Amino acid sequence: MNYDHFFAEAIDALRKERRYRTFAEIERDARHFPRAVWHSPGGPRDIVVWCSNDYLGMGSHPAVIEAMCGAAQARGAGAGGTRNISGNSHEIVMLERELADLHGKESGLVFTSGYISNDTGISTIVKLIPDCVVLSDELNHNSMIEGVRHGGRQKAIFRHNDLDHLEELLQAAGDRPKLIAFESVYSMDGDISPINGICDLAERYGAMTYLDEVHAVGMYGARGGGVAERDGAMHRVDVIEGTLGKAFGVVGGYITGKRVIIDAVRSYAPGFIFTTALPPAVAAAAAASVRHLKDSQAEREGQRAQVAKVKAALAAAGLPQLETPTHIVPVMVGDAKACKMASDLLLAEYGIYIQPINYPTVPRGSERLRITPTPFHDDALIAHLATALSDVWERLELPYADRVVERANSRRVALGPAPIPLPVAGG
Amino acid sequence: MNYDHFFAEAIDALRKERRYRTFAEIERDARHFPRAVWHSPGGPRDIVVWCSNDYLGMGSHPAVIEAMCGAAQARGAGAGGTRNISGNSHEIVMLERELADLHGKESGLVFTSGYISNDTGISTIVKLIPDCVVLSDELNHNSMIEGVRHGGRQKAIFRHNDLDHLEELLQAAGDRPKLIAFESVYSMDGDISPINGICDLAERYGAMTYLDEVHAVGMYGARGGGVAERDGAMHRVDVIEGTLGKAFGVVGGYITGKRVIIDAVRSYAPGFIFTTALPPAVAAAAAASVRHLKDSQAEREGQRAQVAKVKAALAAAGLPQLETPTHIVPVMVGDAKACKMASDLLLAEYGIYIQPINYPTVPRGSERLRITPTPFHDDALIAHLATALSDVWERLELPYADRVVERANSRRVALGPAPIPLPVAGG
């Protein structure tokens, strides 16, 4: 039997829908962040990265790099085993204490990625609560969706950030145990959830809360504890999940919470138990980053200032940005092919790298360029970005502010979160 | 509603069964591998690690550490994004080429861990094949079990390494598409699967093959391609999965295969798409390790020599080792409490760290100390190990060779693979 055609057809389907992805191969330059070299078809080219989730440039911070290299030299390149079998390095234990402290919780637990922390974290928590109903925001990240699915419990999806709808669903769940799973900053639209409002409902209806702060940790709150810290809500949330791979600039994920919850996840989660621990070098680098951002306000203030300037420059140019209260600046295109063309043109002719965001990461019709200014995108780079975008918008005759943003907003809720549409039934 | 008791009860259940796990906190010493410092309750203590999966000590190899530090300094501590959104570093692209070459395949794809490569790799492959039946060895690792489960296809479990049983199941599956999922070296018993025999059956019955070589890559075959390389079977296997976190000494996982298969997984696997890429520093370190082991035989020969010496020393002492054709040396205890006591005594009084392996990693009644000698466990360390084990066996009155090994062997097949028994129904 020939199996190739199954895979070839799956790829063809993506090409036909113009959502086959090619990855831009780049070499970031730690000494000149956010600059990088792009391995273009015609050879190496200098570019500026405008779409990184290394939101504060901490991946290039000397203290972080030094911590990584120091631990690699002293301890070696890897952990050598699972956490249980010789992989429980001093560095990862220290990192977990740093993270628990960051969120004002008793315990922290580090996973190989934010993805796996949500997937195995949520699924394990709900498996440990008999008859639990999971209430999940419709725009939750794929890793949370998978966690809820793998938990095998009944789920109820509430409309994005809609407290009334959440309350209806909580009422409908009656006396059953309930877990509310939501994010603070939603990555693609850059909006923020009403954490205290959700905690009010959780208290009123006796629900447990699980908050994903991956796009907020390091950047919001006086010590970088996230939006829950900023809003004075950290102590109200049962489990706070975060990542070491975005504003902290390294890689890995974690959860924090009461000791008894974290210990149960530690003891039961297959995606934690049966996997090699993160290297001491990674843990040391992440801990250095977390520690630095607990004290230093310079990166957060620098980011806010440059984000405001980018938003002002794009507004002045009449470009269709989605208004956000965060550091995420989506510029709406609304069409997969046009979005890819704009991105290609920016990269090839202006040395500006902004990956097109197409379905399934965002709903069809809301394709966009997602811009993430860091403290290191200086005023000259911002001016160049605004000029380049304006040029590209004219050359490709892309729609301006009024039309696209409206369309995207009207479609977003109707379409809901984007699952991976595998071209088979029963998957 | 109070949720704490759900978690507290789950932990209590583990304590009652004597399988609550505590992790030994250690600092590996890269300059004196396999030596480490154990953060004992009474303060720091010098120990020798005898249970690491850094099988060849490559995590401490200067070329590997240098590659990690060089890339960290040049590129920063992290990748800065998913593979699609600015995280596709030159280093990870080079690593994938190195891995494809290692296994003689067209393409390679790197994941954040071997766990996730199996979980999202297998589930995506079988979702792309309508009506697929998965034939899975009963002793497959948890990550493969989860991958099969998350794929949602019909599965048939064949008795461990049993070609007759596999053939029966292949016949029963008739004309439907079939995937055979198996490992080369089984981690806990240290035995090896009949790869060519399985490939014969796959060809006869038109099945696709997926082989996990995580406990073999780097160590078997002339270039470290694994048991399939050693047995001349690499070209017969459709997908070869491996890890960068064991013999290669770093962290991360991968699959290799035909371009069309790998490209489909790249395009559809949620655990690949929606997660931050491994840092360039990790990719560079792993590539240096893979490259080194393609040429150098010294590590493999050194390992074989020291493994043979350990086996001989334990045999001379009459200790109940499970005979294996590999580098894995299980010494059987057969009881969770005794296994933990032996491990504690070895660590506290002899400075020998061998984590007890209890249920659910192995079936109840087959609890063991799993010893993994590296090229760097010299003759003096081996002599010390044999003496210490003999002492501990006498002091704790543990059973000797004849009794335990028989019991373990007779129970193994009957019990089958150990699922995580979450204390709830419907999980």
From TrEMBL, chains A, B:
The keyword Acyltransferase applies. Residues 46-389 form the Aminotransferase class I/classII large domain. It comes from Xanthobacter agilis. It catalyses: succinyl-CoA + glycine + H(+) = 5-aminolevulinate + CO2 + CoA. Its cofactor is pyridoxal 5'-phosphate. This is 5-aminolevulinate synthase. One of its GO terms (molecular function) is 5-aminolevulinate synthase activity. Gene3D superfamilies: Aspartate Aminotransferase, domain 1, Type I PLP-dependent aspartate aminotransferase-like (Major domain). It comes from the Bacteria. Pathway: Porphyrin-containing compound metabolism; protoporphyrin-IX biosynthesis; 5-aminolevulinate from glycine: step 1/1. Keywords: Acyltransferase, Heme biosynthesis, Pyridoxal phosphate, Transferase. Its EC number is 2.3.1.37. Belongs to the class-II pyridoxal-phosphate-dependent aminotransferase family. PROSITE patterns: AA_TRANSFER_CLASS_2. It is an enzyme of class 2 (transferase). Homodimer.
